[in-house]
Design brief:
alpha/beta; Rossmann fold; five-stranded parallel beta sheet
Length: 169
């Protein structure tokens, strides 16, 4: 196939995962695609380099990042075992980055991804305006096709907890 040509049949599918219900739905769709096309799944969790909230005294950013990495690796170990049990080839990676969308785009390039399955969180109002939409940035800048799964809008976008601020899209 000539360089720059996009194949309609994916061979490496990237699924950015933040362990929310919407990213779980994206993983389910990507799993179906991987099974149908005998493609490899590449799961990616990006741990934000700097928390958005003030930290209590004695708690370091490094300890929070390390705990988030270990938790993500634990989740991925379970997901990998389940997917490999279905005969799907899986690679999972936990990256730390200040710019989550940029880290996803770097993974697309370095992993030679030819298809991305990503979900929205259904946020509206001030949250995406202030923090930006990771999915929107990936859609605009990805060099490959992106399947966007829309998640229903939360009941109230006015109630944003500190754990919600830690989510990355």
């Amino acid at each position: 196939m000539p360089e720059g040509t996009v194949s309609a049949v994916p061979t490496r599918i990237l699924v950015p995962i933040d362990f929310s219900s919407s990213s779980h739905a994206a993983l389910e769709v990507a799993t179906e695609l991987a099974d149908k096309f005998h493609a490899e799944l590449v799961l990616l969790n990006v741990v934000p380099e700097s928390p958005v909230v003030a930290l209590p005294e004695g708690v370091s950013e490094a300890s929070i990042v390390e705990a988030a990495k270990k938790q993500a690796e634990g989740h991925f170990a379970k997901s990998k075992a389940s997917l490999e049990g279905k005969g799907i080839t899986v690679k999972a990676s936990v990256e730390v980055g200040f710019d989550v969308a940029g880290t996803i785009l770097e993974a697309i390039d370095s992993e030679k991804i030819d298809y991305v399955v990503i979900s929205t969180h259904g946020c509206s109002g001030w949250y995406p305006t202030v923090f930006g939409s990771i999915a929107e940035k990936v859609i605009k800048l990805a060099p490959c096709p992106v399947l966007l799964l829309r998640t229903p809008k939360p009941k109230s976008s006015a109630k944003v907890t500190s754990s919600r601020l830690m989510e990355w899209w």
